[in-house]
């Protein structure tokens, strides 16, 4: 199949109207989309990703009004949208239009992406666009055009070129259909912020499914149910102390990579680099251009770099990725959740 890769929103909107599948960037991650009104096209998205059929898709809209045409929007639902949309938040709402995909559900996940070009594209398609993250099922979501092209060129009808994702982790998912508003997936819009509008917000305990924060301990829930967002390399989520220790000792620096805040210490990164240089001079061929270290200064920067770093590590056949625990405070919630999921043993 020939994939049309273009920034022309009109051309790519035409593809959706013809029942085709198009990949597009959002402020969170790339999505792989089809018209919510076209069941066959939506089912193709599942096939391309290898996604289990019981996992429903988010419908992407260009405006609050267009959501209201097809869903029941309560007063509080409207307030949440007015406050946080367009932006990285998805609401689960009761469906008015039962013909929309997925037809067997009474609810619809709705979201308005932040980038005006993407909203214009959705508007031109007639909308909405049902889209999961553009990745093979179980793997990390994608945040770079080059990775999208590597996986999906020839497998989808179009790839829309627009501003690359900046948040880097998937949207916060908030259900407004039960008795109490419930956080279904943490993200960049955090529970503390949501509670200012929704004081009765239910936040399921994230520690229930988390592996212990130690390199030596065994994760609590190795079940495949939770395997998600994971690269092929093994991910170790460790404390700052363990992170610094791991730089100095215990890991073969040729097939290990590090992402975190504490990468500047001389005995740490400096020591690893010296060892690597020694190794390079010993073995002809040496290292690829791959940088084994990703330095971040905030949780937000960490989130925005994480999935692309995972991809780069897998491409370079890295065996172990050591991730420093995020800092308590802003940006912790969603990042911590993704790191924990990636660190669950396969
Ligand atoms: O940032 C994002 O949300 C990205 C971009 C492309 O918008 N999309 C994304 O989609 O992450 P996906 O399919 O990877 O995750 C959607 C989540 C899943 O956990 C799914 O189970 C949940 O939303 N979901 C979708 N429809 C639902 C519904 N009607 N009720 C409850 N959960 C739903
Ligand atoms: Mg996904």
From TrEMBL:
Q: Which UniProt keywords apply?
A: ATP-binding, Cytoplasm, Nucleotide-binding, Nucleotidyltransferase, Transferase, tRNA processing
Q: An example Gene Ontology cellular component term from the record?
A: cytoplasm
Name assigned to this protein: Threonylcarbamoyl-AMP synthase
- Family designation: Belongs to the SUA5 family.
Q: Where are the transmembrane segments?
A: none
E.C. designation(s): 2.7.7.87
- Which InterPro entries does the record match to this protein? DHBP_synth_RibB-like_a/b_dom, Sua5-like_dom, Sua5/YwlC_C, Sua5_C, T(6)A37_SUA5, TC-AMP_synthase_SUA5
Its annotated compartments are: Cytoplasm
In its UniProt entry, the species of origin is given as Leptospira harrisiae
């Amino acid at each position: 199949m020939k994939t049309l890769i273009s920034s022309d929103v009109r051309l790519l909107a035409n593809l959706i109207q013809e029942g085709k599948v198009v990949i597009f960037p959002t402020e969170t991650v790339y999505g792989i989309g089809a018209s919510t009104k076209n069941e066959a096209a939506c089912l193709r998205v599942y096939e391309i990703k290898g996604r289990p059929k019981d996992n429903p898709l988010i419908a992407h809209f260009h405006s609050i009004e267009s959501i209201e045409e097809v869903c029941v929007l309560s007063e509080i639902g409207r307030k949440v949208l007015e406050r946080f949309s367009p932006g990285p938040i998805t609401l689960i709402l009761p469906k008015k239009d039962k013909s929309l995909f997925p037809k067997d559900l009474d609810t619809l996940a709705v979201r308005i992406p932040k980038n005006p070009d993407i909203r214009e594209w959705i508007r031109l398609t007639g909308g909405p666009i049902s889209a999961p993250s553009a990745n093979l099922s179980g793997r990390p979501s994608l945040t770079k055009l080059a990775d999208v092209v590597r996986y999906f060129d020839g497998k989808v009808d179009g790839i829309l070129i627009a501003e690359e994702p900046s948040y880097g982790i998937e949207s916060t998912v908030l259900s407004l259909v039960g008795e109490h508003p419930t956080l279904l997936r943490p993200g960049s819009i955090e529970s503390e912020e949501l509670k200012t509008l929704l004081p009765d917000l239910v936040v399921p305990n994230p520690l229930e499914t988390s592996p212990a924060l130690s390199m030596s301990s065994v994760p609590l829930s190795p079940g495949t149910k939770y395997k998600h967002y994971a690269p092929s390399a093994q991910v170790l989520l460790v404390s700052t102390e363990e992170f610094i220790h791991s730089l100095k000792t215990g890991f073969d620096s040729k097939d290990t990579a590090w992402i975190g805040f504490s990468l500047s210490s001389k005995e740490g990164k400096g020591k690893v680099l010296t060892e690597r240089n020694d190794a390079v001079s010993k073995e002809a061929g040496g290292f690829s251009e791959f940088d084994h270290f990703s330095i971040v200064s905030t949780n937000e920067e960490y989130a925005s770099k994480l999935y692309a770093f995972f991809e780069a590590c897998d491409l370079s056949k890295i065996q172990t990725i050591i991730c420093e625990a995020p800092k308590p405070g802003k940006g912790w919630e969603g990042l911590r959740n993704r790191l924990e999921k990636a660190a669950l043993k396969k």
